[in-house]
Amino acid sequence: MLNSFIHKLKLAFGDPEIRFRIFFLIGALAIFRLLASIPIPGVDHGALASFFANNQFFGLLNIFSGGGLSNLSIAMLGVGPYITASIIMQLGTIIFPKVKQAYFEEGEAGRAKFIEWSRLFTIPIAILQGVGFLFLLQSQDVIAHLSSVALIANIAIIAAGSMLLMWLGELVTEFGIGNGVSLIILAGILASVPASISQAIFAASAANIPAYLAFIFLALAMVYTVVVVSDAERSIPIAYARAVRGAMMSQGAATYLPIRLLQAGVIPIIFALSLLLLPQMALSMLGTLHISFASSAALWYTAFLSNPWKYGTVYFLLVVLFTYFYTAVTFEPHRVAENLQKSGAFVPGVRPGRETEEFIGKVVNRVTLPGAVFLGFIAVAPSIIQGITGVTTLVLGGTALLIAVQVALDLAQKIDAQVSLREY
Q1: Contact assessment for residue 374 and residue 261, using Cβ atoms and an 8 Å cutoff
Q2: What is the CATH number of the domain that holds 4?
Q3: Residue 316's closest CA among 263, 260, 382, 364?
Q4: CA 173, CA 179: separation in Å to the nearest integer?
Q5: Does residue 422 belong to any structural domain of this protein?
Q6: What is the mean pLDDT of residues 197-225?
Q7: Which one of 89, 169, 230, 357 is CB 3.0 to 4.6 Å from 181, fit for a cystine?
Q8: Alpha carbon of 405 to those of 30, 84, 189, 197, 222: distances in Å?
Q9: What is the rounded distance in angstroms from the CA atom of residue 300 to the CA atom of residue 214?
Q10: pTM for this structure?
Protein backbone atom coordinates (compact mmCIF):
# COMPACT_ATOMS: atom_id res chain seq x y z
CA MET A 1 0.00 0.00 0.00
CA LEU A 2 2.87 2.36 0.85
CA ASN A 3 4.57 1.56 -2.47
CA SER A 4 1.33 2.30 -4.32
CA PHE A 5 1.00 5.65 -2.51
CA ILE A 6 4.60 6.61 -3.34
CA HIS A 7 4.07 5.56 -6.98
CA LYS A 8 0.95 7.72 -7.31
CA LEU A 9 2.73 10.63 -5.61
CA LYS A 10 5.55 10.43 -8.16
CA LEU A 11 3.03 10.32 -10.99
CA ALA A 12 1.16 13.33 -9.58
CA PHE A 13 4.23 15.55 -9.31
CA GLY A 14 5.71 14.14 -12.52
CA ASP A 15 2.76 15.25 -14.62
CA PRO A 16 3.00 19.00 -15.48
CA GLU A 17 -0.77 19.63 -15.39
CA ILE A 18 -1.38 17.91 -12.05
CA ARG A 19 1.71 19.60 -10.59
CA PHE A 20 0.38 22.99 -11.74
CA ARG A 21 -3.03 22.28 -10.17
CA ILE A 22 -1.46 21.25 -6.84
CA PHE A 23 0.79 24.31 -6.65
CA PHE A 24 -2.10 26.58 -7.70
CA LEU A 25 -4.13 25.15 -4.80
CA ILE A 26 -1.26 25.72 -2.35
CA GLY A 27 -0.75 29.31 -3.58
CA ALA A 28 -4.46 30.14 -3.32
CA LEU A 29 -4.65 28.80 0.24
CA ALA A 30 -1.53 30.83 1.16
CA ILE A 31 -3.28 34.00 -0.09
CA PHE A 32 -6.35 33.10 1.96
CA ARG A 33 -4.28 32.66 5.15
CA LEU A 34 -2.65 36.04 4.50
CA LEU A 35 -6.06 37.72 4.21
CA ALA A 36 -7.26 35.93 7.38
CA SER A 37 -4.35 37.43 9.36
CA ILE A 38 -5.09 41.10 8.54
CA PRO A 39 -7.48 42.47 11.23
CA ILE A 40 -9.96 45.29 10.79
CA PRO A 41 -9.14 48.52 12.71
CA GLY A 42 -10.04 49.08 16.38
CA VAL A 43 -10.04 45.47 17.68
CA ASP A 44 -9.51 44.82 21.41
CA HIS A 45 -7.71 41.47 21.15
CA GLY A 46 -8.03 40.72 24.89
CA ALA A 47 -11.81 41.25 24.82
CA LEU A 48 -12.00 39.26 21.57
CA ALA A 49 -10.18 36.26 23.10
CA SER A 50 -12.45 36.39 26.18
CA PHE A 51 -15.55 36.60 23.98
CA PHE A 52 -14.62 33.47 22.00
CA ALA A 53 -13.52 31.58 25.13
CA ASN A 54 -16.92 32.13 26.77
CA ASN A 55 -19.05 31.44 23.70
CA GLN A 56 -18.59 28.10 21.97
CA PHE A 57 -21.28 28.95 19.43
CA PHE A 58 -19.12 31.63 17.81
CA GLY A 59 -16.24 29.18 17.87
CA LEU A 60 -18.34 27.02 15.55
CA LEU A 61 -19.06 29.99 13.30
CA ASN A 62 -15.31 30.57 13.16
CA ILE A 63 -15.04 27.20 11.41
CA PHE A 64 -17.16 28.35 8.49
CA SER A 65 -15.30 31.65 8.26
CA GLY A 66 -12.13 29.63 7.65
CA GLY A 67 -10.61 30.95 10.89
CA GLY A 68 -10.93 34.62 9.93
CA LEU A 69 -13.55 35.43 12.56
CA SER A 70 -11.30 34.60 15.53
CA ASN A 71 -9.11 37.67 14.89
CA LEU A 72 -11.73 39.81 13.09
CA SER A 73 -9.76 39.85 9.86
CA ILE A 74 -10.89 41.48 6.64
CA ALA A 75 -11.99 37.95 5.68
CA MET A 76 -13.93 37.45 8.93
CA LEU A 77 -17.10 36.32 7.14
CA GLY A 78 -15.15 33.77 5.10
CA VAL A 79 -17.20 31.93 2.49
CA GLY A 80 -20.23 31.84 4.82
CA PRO A 81 -22.31 34.35 2.79
CA TYR A 82 -21.67 32.40 -0.43
CA ILE A 83 -22.67 29.14 1.24
CA THR A 84 -25.84 30.80 2.61
CA ALA A 85 -26.66 32.19 -0.85
CA SER A 86 -26.20 28.74 -2.40
CA ILE A 87 -28.52 27.21 0.20
CA ILE A 88 -31.16 29.89 -0.49
CA MET A 89 -30.92 29.16 -4.21
CA GLN A 90 -31.33 25.42 -3.60
CA LEU A 91 -34.42 26.13 -1.51
CA GLY A 92 -35.60 28.34 -4.36
CA THR A 93 -35.73 25.28 -6.62
CA ILE A 94 -38.77 24.17 -4.59
CA ILE A 95 -40.47 27.55 -4.22
CA PHE A 96 -39.88 28.99 -7.71
CA PRO A 97 -40.47 26.80 -10.79
CA LYS A 98 -38.18 29.00 -12.92
CA VAL A 99 -35.21 28.34 -10.63
CA LYS A 100 -36.00 24.60 -10.62
CA GLN A 101 -36.17 24.56 -14.41
CA ALA A 102 -32.83 26.38 -14.70
CA TYR A 103 -31.08 24.02 -12.28
CA PHE A 104 -32.47 20.66 -13.39
CA GLU A 105 -33.52 21.00 -17.02
CA GLU A 106 -31.25 23.50 -18.80
CA GLY A 107 -27.99 21.56 -18.42
CA GLU A 108 -24.67 23.42 -18.13
CA ALA A 109 -26.22 26.76 -19.15
CA GLY A 110 -28.80 26.43 -16.37
CA ARG A 111 -26.17 25.56 -13.76
CA ALA A 112 -24.04 28.53 -14.86
CA LYS A 113 -27.09 30.78 -14.42
CA PHE A 114 -27.73 29.22 -11.00
CA ILE A 115 -24.14 29.98 -9.90
CA GLU A 116 -24.44 33.55 -11.20
CA TRP A 117 -27.59 34.13 -9.13
CA SER A 118 -25.82 32.69 -6.08
CA ARG A 119 -22.98 35.19 -6.54
CA LEU A 120 -25.41 38.10 -6.76
CA PHE A 121 -27.21 36.96 -3.59
CA THR A 122 -23.86 36.76 -1.80
CA ILE A 123 -23.42 40.57 -1.89
CA PRO A 124 -26.50 41.61 0.20
CA ILE A 125 -26.01 38.63 2.54
CA ALA A 126 -22.37 39.62 3.17
CA ILE A 127 -23.44 43.23 3.88
CA LEU A 128 -26.20 42.17 6.29
CA GLN A 129 -23.94 39.73 8.13
CA GLY A 130 -21.20 42.37 8.34
CA VAL A 131 -23.61 44.89 9.86
CA GLY A 132 -24.94 42.31 12.33
CA PHE A 133 -21.48 41.18 13.46
CA LEU A 134 -20.18 44.73 13.91
CA PHE A 135 -23.20 45.77 16.01
CA LEU A 136 -22.89 42.58 18.06
CA LEU A 137 -19.16 43.05 18.69
CA GLN A 138 -19.69 46.70 19.60
CA SER A 139 -22.28 45.68 22.18
CA GLN A 140 -19.76 43.21 23.67
CA ASP A 141 -17.00 45.91 23.74
CA VAL A 142 -14.83 43.79 21.45
CA ILE A 143 -14.41 46.73 19.06
CA ALA A 144 -14.64 50.43 19.80
CA HIS A 145 -17.76 52.41 18.91
CA LEU A 146 -17.53 53.30 15.22
CA SER A 147 -18.56 56.52 13.59
CA SER A 148 -20.90 56.37 10.60
CA VAL A 149 -18.02 56.71 8.11
CA ALA A 150 -15.89 54.07 9.89
CA LEU A 151 -18.89 51.71 10.12
CA ILE A 152 -19.61 51.97 6.39
CA ALA A 153 -15.90 51.52 5.57
CA ASN A 154 -15.62 48.40 7.74
CA ILE A 155 -18.80 46.91 6.26
CA ALA A 156 -17.43 47.51 2.75
CA ILE A 157 -14.08 45.90 3.69
CA ILE A 158 -15.74 42.86 5.27
CA ALA A 159 -18.14 42.32 2.35
CA ALA A 160 -15.31 42.77 -0.18
CA GLY A 161 -13.19 40.23 1.74
CA SER A 162 -15.99 37.68 1.56
CA MET A 163 -16.46 38.25 -2.18
CA LEU A 164 -12.71 37.92 -2.72
CA LEU A 165 -12.68 34.54 -0.95
CA MET A 166 -15.68 33.43 -3.03
CA TRP A 167 -13.75 34.32 -6.21
CA LEU A 168 -10.61 32.61 -4.89
CA GLY A 169 -12.61 29.45 -4.13
CA GLU A 170 -14.05 29.36 -7.64
CA LEU A 171 -10.57 29.78 -9.12
CA VAL A 172 -9.36 26.79 -7.08
CA THR A 173 -12.33 24.73 -8.32
CA GLU A 174 -11.52 25.62 -11.94
CA PHE A 175 -7.71 25.62 -12.00
CA GLY A 176 -6.79 23.62 -8.88
CA ILE A 177 -8.03 20.30 -7.50
CA GLY A 178 -11.20 19.76 -5.47
CA ASN A 179 -13.94 22.11 -4.35
CA GLY A 180 -12.36 25.51 -3.62
CA VAL A 181 -14.92 26.68 -1.04
CA SER A 182 -14.61 23.46 0.96
CA LEU A 183 -10.81 23.60 0.83
CA ILE A 184 -10.81 27.17 2.17
CA ILE A 185 -12.84 25.99 5.16
CA LEU A 186 -10.48 23.02 5.59
CA ALA A 187 -7.45 25.35 5.56
CA GLY A 188 -9.01 27.45 8.34
CA ILE A 189 -9.71 24.33 10.42
CA LEU A 190 -6.15 23.01 10.05
CA ALA A 191 -4.67 26.45 10.81
CA SER A 192 -6.43 26.51 14.20
CA VAL A 193 -5.21 23.05 15.28
CA PRO A 194 -1.72 24.04 16.56
CA ALA A 195 -3.11 26.89 18.69
CA SER A 196 -5.80 24.61 20.18
CA ILE A 197 -3.26 21.91 21.04
CA SER A 198 -0.80 24.36 22.64
CA GLN A 199 -3.62 25.98 24.64
CA ALA A 200 -4.72 22.57 25.95
CA ILE A 201 -1.13 21.60 26.86
CA PHE A 202 -0.44 24.81 28.77
CA ALA A 203 -3.74 24.54 30.64
CA ALA A 204 -3.17 20.89 31.56
CA SER A 205 -2.82 19.86 35.19
CA ALA A 206 -2.42 16.54 37.02
CA ALA A 207 -6.09 16.53 38.00
CA ASN A 208 -7.19 16.84 34.37
CA ILE A 209 -4.97 14.09 32.95
CA PRO A 210 -7.78 11.44 32.91
CA ALA A 211 -10.05 13.90 31.08
CA TYR A 212 -7.36 14.60 28.49
CA LEU A 213 -6.70 10.88 27.95
CA ALA A 214 -10.42 10.27 27.52
CA PHE A 215 -10.54 13.20 25.11
CA ILE A 216 -7.70 11.77 22.97
CA PHE A 217 -9.37 8.34 22.86
CA LEU A 218 -12.73 9.84 21.93
CA ALA A 219 -11.14 12.04 19.25
CA LEU A 220 -9.50 9.01 17.60
CA ALA A 221 -12.76 7.06 17.79
CA MET A 222 -14.62 9.96 16.19
CA VAL A 223 -12.10 10.21 13.35
CA TYR A 224 -12.58 6.50 12.59
CA THR A 225 -16.37 6.78 12.85
CA VAL A 226 -16.54 9.84 10.60
CA VAL A 227 -14.43 8.10 7.93
CA VAL A 228 -16.71 5.03 8.01
CA VAL A 229 -19.99 6.95 8.07
CA SER A 230 -18.91 9.39 5.33
CA ASP A 231 -18.63 6.48 2.89
CA ALA A 232 -21.62 4.50 4.21
CA GLU A 233 -24.54 3.97 1.84
CA ARG A 234 -27.61 1.81 1.33
CA SER A 235 -27.64 0.24 -2.14
CA ILE A 236 -30.99 -0.32 -3.86
CA PRO A 237 -30.62 -2.96 -6.63
CA ILE A 238 -31.65 -1.74 -10.09
CA ALA A 239 -32.30 -4.00 -13.09
CA TYR A 240 -32.90 -3.13 -16.74
CA ALA A 241 -35.44 -4.80 -18.99
CA ARG A 242 -34.22 -7.17 -21.69
CA ALA A 243 -34.00 -5.63 -25.14
CA VAL A 244 -35.02 -7.60 -28.27
CA ARG A 245 -33.27 -6.56 -31.49
CA GLY A 246 -34.19 -8.71 -34.48
CA ALA A 247 -33.51 -12.33 -33.58
CA MET A 248 -31.12 -11.32 -30.77
CA MET A 249 -32.17 -10.83 -27.16
CA SER A 250 -29.76 -8.90 -24.92
CA GLN A 251 -29.67 -9.54 -21.18
CA GLY A 252 -30.67 -6.52 -19.09
CA ALA A 253 -27.83 -5.00 -17.10
CA ALA A 254 -27.93 -4.89 -13.30
CA THR A 255 -26.68 -2.02 -11.16
CA TYR A 256 -27.69 -0.26 -7.95
CA LEU A 257 -28.90 3.12 -6.68
CA PRO A 258 -26.71 4.37 -3.78
CA ILE A 259 -28.49 6.16 -0.91
CA ARG A 260 -25.84 7.80 1.24
CA LEU A 261 -26.16 7.83 5.02
CA LEU A 262 -25.08 11.49 5.09
CA GLN A 263 -27.17 12.51 2.09
CA ALA A 264 -27.31 16.15 3.26
CA GLY A 265 -23.61 16.46 4.16
CA VAL A 266 -22.86 19.27 6.61
CA ILE A 267 -25.57 21.60 5.23
CA PRO A 268 -28.00 20.90 8.16
CA ILE A 269 -25.31 22.08 10.59
CA ILE A 270 -24.94 25.32 8.61
CA PHE A 271 -28.74 25.74 8.65
CA ALA A 272 -28.86 25.24 12.42
CA LEU A 273 -25.98 27.65 13.05
CA SER A 274 -27.58 30.32 10.87
CA LEU A 275 -30.91 29.98 12.68
CA LEU A 276 -29.25 30.17 16.11
CA LEU A 277 -27.20 33.20 15.04
CA LEU A 278 -30.13 35.19 13.67
CA PRO A 279 -31.81 36.16 17.01
CA GLN A 280 -28.55 37.39 18.58
CA MET A 281 -27.64 39.52 15.58
CA ALA A 282 -31.17 40.96 15.39
CA LEU A 283 -31.25 41.72 19.13
CA SER A 284 -27.82 43.35 18.96
CA MET A 285 -28.96 45.63 16.13
CA LEU A 286 -32.14 46.53 18.04
CA GLY A 287 -30.06 47.20 21.15
CA THR A 288 -28.07 49.87 19.31
CA LEU A 289 -31.38 51.59 18.56
CA HIS A 290 -32.04 51.77 22.36
CA ILE A 291 -35.15 49.60 22.26
CA SER A 292 -35.94 48.69 25.87
CA PHE A 293 -36.52 44.93 25.69
CA ALA A 294 -33.67 44.24 23.23
CA SER A 295 -30.78 44.60 25.71
CA SER A 296 -32.26 42.26 28.34
CA ALA A 297 -33.31 39.77 25.65
CA ALA A 298 -29.80 39.86 24.15
CA LEU A 299 -28.25 39.13 27.57
CA TRP A 300 -30.65 36.20 28.11
CA TYR A 301 -29.90 34.77 24.66
CA THR A 302 -26.13 35.13 25.17
CA ALA A 303 -26.42 33.24 28.46
CA PHE A 304 -28.46 30.55 26.66
CA LEU A 305 -25.76 30.10 24.01
CA SER A 306 -23.10 29.90 26.72
CA ASN A 307 -24.91 27.03 28.52
CA PRO A 308 -23.59 23.82 26.89
CA TRP A 309 -26.61 21.67 27.87
CA LYS A 310 -29.45 24.01 26.82
CA TYR A 311 -27.71 25.20 23.68
CA GLY A 312 -26.57 21.65 22.83
CA THR A 313 -30.09 20.21 23.14
CA VAL A 314 -31.63 22.83 20.83
CA TYR A 315 -28.71 22.55 18.42
CA PHE A 316 -29.07 18.74 18.24
CA LEU A 317 -32.81 18.92 17.53
CA LEU A 318 -32.34 21.58 14.84
CA VAL A 319 -29.64 19.52 13.09
CA VAL A 320 -31.89 16.42 13.03
CA LEU A 321 -34.88 18.39 11.70
CA PHE A 322 -32.84 20.19 9.06
CA THR A 323 -31.26 16.90 7.94
CA TYR A 324 -34.71 15.56 7.07
CA PHE A 325 -35.72 18.87 5.53
CA TYR A 326 -32.64 19.25 3.31
CA THR A 327 -32.76 15.59 2.24
CA ALA A 328 -36.37 16.12 1.16
CA VAL A 329 -35.31 19.24 -0.77
CA THR A 330 -32.38 17.71 -2.64
CA PHE A 331 -33.51 14.08 -3.11
CA GLU A 332 -36.84 13.66 -4.88
CA PRO A 333 -38.08 10.03 -5.00
CA HIS A 334 -40.66 11.04 -7.61
CA ARG A 335 -37.96 12.31 -10.00
CA VAL A 336 -35.75 9.26 -9.40
CA ALA A 337 -38.65 6.83 -10.02
CA GLU A 338 -39.63 8.75 -13.16
CA ASN A 339 -36.08 8.66 -14.54
CA LEU A 340 -35.80 4.94 -13.84
CA GLN A 341 -39.06 4.25 -15.66
CA LYS A 342 -37.99 6.36 -18.66
CA SER A 343 -34.70 4.47 -18.97
CA GLY A 344 -36.38 1.06 -18.74
CA ALA A 345 -34.99 0.35 -15.27
CA PHE A 346 -36.85 -1.01 -12.25
CA VAL A 347 -36.32 -2.19 -8.68
CA PRO A 348 -36.69 -6.00 -8.60
CA GLY A 349 -39.96 -6.98 -6.89
CA VAL A 350 -41.39 -3.43 -7.04
CA ARG A 351 -43.75 -2.12 -9.71
CA PRO A 352 -42.44 0.88 -11.72
CA GLY A 353 -44.03 4.26 -11.11
CA ARG A 354 -45.79 5.16 -7.88
CA GLU A 355 -44.82 1.97 -5.99
CA THR A 356 -41.14 2.55 -6.83
CA GLU A 357 -41.44 6.15 -5.65
CA GLU A 358 -42.95 5.03 -2.33
CA PHE A 359 -40.33 2.30 -1.88
CA ILE A 360 -37.41 4.69 -2.49
CA GLY A 361 -39.03 7.28 -0.20
CA LYS A 362 -39.30 4.74 2.65
CA VAL A 363 -35.66 3.67 2.20
CA VAL A 364 -34.48 7.30 2.23
CA ASN A 365 -36.46 8.04 5.41
CA ARG A 366 -35.05 4.97 7.19
CA VAL A 367 -31.48 5.76 6.14
CA THR A 368 -31.82 9.45 7.01
CA LEU A 369 -32.66 8.77 10.69
CA PRO A 370 -29.27 7.30 11.74
CA GLY A 371 -27.51 9.86 9.55
CA ALA A 372 -29.41 12.72 11.20
CA VAL A 373 -28.70 11.40 14.72
CA PHE A 374 -25.02 10.98 13.86
CA LEU A 375 -24.81 14.54 12.48
CA GLY A 376 -26.54 15.87 15.60
CA PHE A 377 -24.16 13.99 17.90
CA ILE A 378 -21.12 15.22 15.97
CA ALA A 379 -22.42 18.80 16.19
CA VAL A 380 -22.95 18.76 19.97
CA ALA A 381 -19.91 16.61 20.89
CA PRO A 382 -17.94 19.66 22.18
CA SER A 383 -20.87 20.67 24.41
CA ILE A 384 -21.15 17.12 25.82
CA ILE A 385 -17.42 16.91 26.57
CA GLN A 386 -17.27 20.33 28.19
CA GLY A 387 -20.47 19.75 30.13
CA ILE A 388 -19.17 16.45 31.57
CA THR A 389 -15.56 17.43 32.26
CA GLY A 390 -16.03 21.14 32.92
CA VAL A 391 -12.72 21.72 31.09
CA THR A 392 -13.23 24.46 28.51
CA THR A 393 -9.77 24.00 26.98
CA LEU A 394 -10.84 20.65 25.52
CA VAL A 395 -11.89 21.52 22.01
CA LEU A 396 -13.34 18.45 20.31
CA GLY A 397 -14.57 20.06 17.11
CA GLY A 398 -17.00 17.44 15.89
CA THR A 399 -18.30 19.69 13.13
CA ALA A 400 -14.77 20.68 12.13
CA LEU A 401 -13.74 17.02 12.20
CA LEU A 402 -16.63 16.00 9.96
CA ILE A 403 -15.85 18.74 7.43
CA ALA A 404 -12.11 18.04 7.50
CA VAL A 405 -12.54 14.30 6.92
CA GLN A 406 -15.10 14.70 4.12
CA VAL A 407 -13.07 17.38 2.31
CA ALA A 408 -9.80 15.44 2.73
CA LEU A 409 -11.41 12.25 1.36
CA ASP A 410 -12.86 14.18 -1.59
CA LEU A 411 -9.48 15.81 -2.32
CA ALA A 412 -7.69 12.44 -2.18
CA GLN A 413 -10.27 10.94 -4.57
CA LYS A 414 -9.90 13.86 -7.00
CA ILE A 415 -6.10 13.57 -7.05
CA ASP A 416 -6.32 9.80 -7.48
CA ALA A 417 -8.77 10.26 -10.37
CA GLN A 418 -6.42 12.71 -12.10
CA VAL A 419 -3.48 10.31 -11.68
CA SER A 420 -5.49 7.27 -12.85
CA LEU A 421 -6.68 9.18 -15.92
CA ARG A 422 -3.09 9.81 -16.98
CA GLU A 423 -1.97 6.26 -16.10
CA TYR A 424 -4.35 4.76 -18.64
Answers
A1: yes
A2: 1.10.3370.10
A3: 382
A4: 5
A5: no
A6: 68
A7: 169
A8: 21, 22, 11, 19, 10
A9: 33
A10: 0.75
